[in-house]
Amino acid sequence: MVITCCKRSARFQNWGPLCGGMLRTTVGCVGVEERDEEQEDEGEEDLRDGGVPFFVNRGGLPVDEETWEQMWRHVARIHPNGEAIGKHIRGASDLPKIPTPSVPTFQTTTSIPQRLEAIQKYIRDLQYPLPGCALTLILCRLMDIAKEMTRESLPIKCLEAVILGIYLTNSMPGVERFPLSFKTEFSGNHFCHIVLGVHSGGRFGALGISRRDDLMFKPLEFRTLADLVQEFEGAYRGYWHTLRKVKIGQYVSHDLHSVEQIDWKHSILDMDKLTKEELRRELDRHTRDMRLKIGKPAPASPTKDRKAGMGSPLRNPGSPMRRNSRIERRPSGEKKVLEPKPPSDINGYQIRV
């Protein structure tokens, strides 16, 4: 994640809001000419850091003292009042404390639906947005990012809400989680959105964040995955968006220290090529695939003392390696021919590094 401090070309009176993962400030025309020499230094920073004055969180979060000083110098360069505005803010002793939401805690008697509603409220209270995190990170690293989110209480986007939802529901073994993403079209432009699908007690629901109330949280009241997807499709229709593709991942492990990667798009459904009945069949098939995955053990972490070339202790010598589940992914509408597998492949073992 990288936050950049960038300039804007409109007049302003004070700091801009945290929006889009960037600390946005604007440039006034008054007093800028008086700081030509400092502007030249800023140009050098632009060249050095790839077109932006400087990176805010290069040293990680929370922001270190050196970066804070760099931000205040940046304010002095671009604000019409120069250094006076910085001295005024930093010297104030009555600045209001910024409220931050508290991570929800639960009693043993709290029901699953009530827990999910509390988690959704916490995610929503964080608001928008934090810069995106990479989809290729392994699960344990994503959980570290989620811990940072709870510590810093920064605004988040839909992808970060999914990671945070996974983290906050890890202590609920009866709740299965899976990524559910949508690609829509409006006025010739395409838009992407993702939520965390949840399944518990034979019902489906969703956790997430969006600027639209009906495009994030869905209570555990949908009998099938198809019903849940059609609910989102109807919500998009209310905003004149046409749903083009739906991507559904596999269930996510409850192990905080797992080294496996999240399967974000095990099934890719092209809504233009599927009838309602075909869509329901594909979603039912995916539901069965997810249920089958529950009984499979997650890959263990590799040990340091394992010798190079030594076979896994969970496989018989000479047994073939199980195929990567990503290869088995297929888009909608294509019929997959099942290949016969030898019996020894059932207990296949694979290490992800």
UniProtKB/TrEMBL annotation:
<feature type="active site">
    <location>
        <position position="193"/>
    </location>
</feature>
<feature type="compositionally biased region" description="Basic and acidic residues">
    <location>
        <begin position="325"/>
        <end position="339"/>
    </location>
</feature>
<dbReference type="GO" id="GO:0005737">
    <property type="term" value="C:cytoplasm"/>
</dbReference>
<feature type="active site">
    <location>
        <position position="158"/>
    </location>
</feature>
<feature type="region of interest" description="Disordered">
    <location>
        <begin position="285"/>
        <end position="353"/>
    </location>
</feature>
<dbReference type="Pfam" id="PF14822">
    <property type="entry name" value="Vasohibin"/>
</dbReference>
<dbReference type="InterPro" id="IPR028131">
    <property type="entry name" value="VASH1"/>
</dbReference>
<dbReference type="GO" id="GO:0045765">
    <property type="term" value="P:regulation of angiogenesis"/>
</dbReference>
<protein>
    <recommendedName>
        <fullName>Vasohibin 1</fullName>
    </recommendedName>
</protein>
<feature type="active site">
    <location>
        <position position="210"/>
    </location>
</feature>
